[in-house]
Amino acid sequence: MLEDDNLNQTTLNEEENDGTLESMHHVNNPVLDLPKIEKKYLETIVAHNQNDKSYYFSDGKAKVEIKIVTDEIVRVRLAPQGTFLEDFSYALAKKDHRVSIHQCKEETDHYLVHTNTISCKINKNDFLISFADRSGKLFNADLAPMHWEENPDFGGYYVYSTKVAFENEAFYGLGDKATKLNLRGKRLKNWNSDTYAFAYDQDPLYKTIPFYIGLKDGEAYGIFFDNTFKTYFDFAAEDPGKTSFWSEGGELQYYYIHGPHIIDVIRRYHTLTGTHYLPPLWAIGYHQCRWSYYPEANVRKVAEEFRKRQIPCDAIYLDIDYMEGYRCFTWNKQYFPNPKNMISDLANDGFKTVVMIDPGIKVDENYWVFREGKENKYFCRRGDDYFMEGFVWPGRCQFPDFTNPEVRQWWGTLYQGLVEDGVAGFWNDMNEPAVFGRGTFPDDVRHQYDGHRGSHRKAHNVYGMQMVRATYDGLKKLYKNKRPFTITRAAYAGTQRYSSVWTGDNLASWEHLKLGTLQLQRLSTSGMSFCGTDIGGFTGEPDGELFTRWMQFGVFSPFMRVHSAGDTRDREPWSFGEDWEKINRKFIELRYKLLPYIYTCFWEQTKYGFPILRPISMVEQHIPTNWQREEEFCFGDKILVSPVLQPGQKSKIVYLPEGTWFYYFNNEIYVGGKEHTIATPIDEMPIFIRGGSVIPEYPVMQYTGEKKIEELQLNVYFAEGVTRSYVYSDHGDTFAYEQDIYLEKCFTVSGLKESLSIKQTRDGLFTERYEEYKLQLIGLPFQVKKVKTDGIDTKVQVDEKGRYWINVAREFDNILIEG
């Protein structure tokens, strides 16, 4: 009866509306044709338009933006329903980019968007996009149109890009991956993960850097997939002719970065994401760490042993046990009754103190950090508005939302007490974020995301980055004109603007020593040059040989730190006996001798975007046999090393790039462009200096700044031809270099069979304290008969080993050495 009444009322209403009777269809769901959830692909282009440097193409529903960022960088962006998300990225540095020319040309079957360097071709009928240089040489091409699939549970889309993997194309980058350098044949995932004692090929690890380099026919390009969700990369693993990258959310947004040299791709990637901040000089010295050095007497004993044994060291670290109940920004007064006094005494003996800070804040109403965070609503919440709570070292914890700028500012102020106590550096750990028992936060945790909102699916991979950003920005204010030092375990692309990184909880094994050499090369070519490993392995027990070989590699790690777990035996340089101590001392001293060269490499990264560690595949990318080389790499462009990676190894085959090379320990000359068998006695490691180089050298110090430099030694290695070397100096710990208070010296060395000339040019306003250079002339193919400095005769000294030495004023212009 009720149904009849409703029907009659409906009929009456229809009659009143239009006076006609319509047949009625009653269904439970008024949507008669629900769309099927499936992958959808871009179709034929039906419209296009331009807005400034952006060109838009549409298939009638979806829209693609081709944006000219620079002459060599193009951004590709997909909007499946024709509406783009807000243009926001944590990865990008705030920089103005210059474009010379750009225009779009329509042809019969395609559009061509080009600059004066590259061309982006967009096919009309199938929406395939490809990139070529202006001569038409193809670098990168879609195999299938960009595609997507609706995500009914979370909203948004899974987004996909599938590209051609050309025959013999090699792939590098992607940051912290525990696998071989060439990624071809690998499928990898980006999701920052706490991976204790990770294994070879285990994935994912602690960092997300969705940037890779393709090397095709000896020429390179880069792809930066700026997407913070869980992302995947397939480098011809599923299909040898296909490379794909995709994400579980967010936009399909990537940057094509043109080469053709790998180093150019990396430099241009840095123009997008920024370079490393210039660290204080002490931060690139030798650092000693353990979980944990406590109580205070133990810390003082370790410091005392370093100075007594004359082993250089700049920093000692305090792990979580320095805190009161693992509460961040507190001191355990039982272990450290007067931390300020201890830190002052350490500083007077040349040691900087670095302490750990984790993101988990103990739920405790009597704990001032928790109270402030709670009162100001700074902690993360779940989807149904409960606080995100999880267990880490202090027990039940809540976690700040570092994607909220107000929270980041607050977090930066929390360091004030530790800074006033004299702490010089800070170590952000457990910030993947790691949570005991479940791995990380659940997906429904909400984040402010600088006003752009998002769940943890979106914010997970940037959580650690934003934590260390808050740390760095806060310290920059607290230290005023002093440069902060920070280190983080978790990272996303662009983290280099705020912090150094290390590879996490590795294992004391020869395999992990090899893995460390691969990881640091990969991090360096992925934009994070200030990187290191836990020397000796975090967990497990190295013997003296493994520890010493790792220490040798550590000299040529941009970040040099020994670190070990609390359940391992002592891991100081002297812990394995007198013979090993002697070798470890020798190599740590080598680090300190090379500090002016290493500091110059950091300057070149900061100012020019050059990677510090350079694989052979980058140094000589035009030689296909080099694309698989992994054991040799260059530190800067003047020193090549090949760490010893096998126990009991008496010799190893080392490839030297083209040119002349000098074995560091005896100055024996080797011809490049081929492999050499090099002896590897335990107190040496294959280290070579490129001929033509000028390598600055400090006297051995127990810590940076211990000694006043009376004269700077310059080691000049002969080679025929012209070679340029740079030496950088400044105050070593301030930001005065940003006002040009620095000195960048260029030495141009020109070698002939009977002469050698050295020309110096200087840029910057910094004044060095020393007045002279002491030049060592190495490898001259002639007997020196005459030396003139700026036209004036200069005295030459010959030592007992037949080496030539000259002293010259630091501001010389030209030196001519004749045979």
Could you name the CATH topology of the largest domain?
TIM Barrel
Q: Largest sheet at a glance? A: 10 strands, antiparallel
Can you give the mean pLDDT? 95
Calculate Rg over CA atoms: 30 Å
Distance separating the two termini = 119 Å
CATH hierarchy: architecture of the largest domain: Alpha-Beta Barrel
Indicate the low-confidence ranges by residue numbers: 1-24
**CATH fourth-tier homologous superfamily of the largest domain:** Glycosidases
The CATH class of the largest domain turns out to be Alpha Beta
How many helices does DSSP assign?
A: 13
Helix coverage percent of residues?
Answer: 10-25%
E-strand count: 53
The structure class reads alpha+beta
Protein name: Glycosyl hydrolase
GO molecular function, one term: hydrolase activity, hydrolyzing O-glycosyl compounds
Family: Belongs to the glycosyl hydrolase 31 family.
Keywords: Glycosidase, Hydrolase
Secondary structure topology:
Blueprint: H1 2-18, E1 40-41, E2 47-51, E3 54-58, E4 63-68, E5 73-79, E6 103-106, E7 110-114, E8 118-123, E9 129-133, E10 138-150, E11 157-164, E12 170-173, E13 187-190, E14 207-208, E15 211-216, E16 219-225, E17 231-235, E18 242-247, E19 252-258, H2 262-273, E20 286-288, H3 296-308, E21 315-318, H4 339-348, E22 352-357, E23 361-362, H5 368-375, E24 389-392, E25 395-398, H6 405-413, H7 416-421, E26 425-428, E27 446-447, E28 454-455, H8 456-478, E29 486-488, E30 491-492, E31 500-502, H9 510-525, E32 531-532, E33 534-535, H10 544-555, E34 560-562, H11 578-593, H12 595-608, E35 613-615, H13 616-619, E36 633-635, E37 639-641, E38 651-656, E39 660-663, E40 669-671, E41 674-679, E42 687-690, E43 694-697, E44 711-717, E45 721-729, E46 743-752, E47 755-763, E48 772-778, E49 786-789, E50 792-793, E51 797-798, E52 804-809, E53 814-818
Parallel strand pairs: 14-30, 20-21, 20-34, 21-22, 22-26, 26-29, 29-31, 31-32, 33-34, 44-48
Antiparallel strand pairs: 1-10, 2-3, 3-4, 4-5, 5-19, 6-7, 7-8, 8-9, 9-10, 10-11, 11-18, 12-15, 13-17, 15-16, 16-19, 17-18, 23-25, 24-25, 27-28, 35-36, 36-37, 37-42, 38-41, 39-40, 39-42, 43-44, 45-46, 46-47, 47-53, 48-52, 49-50, 49-53, 51-52
Helix pairs in contact: 6-8, 10-11
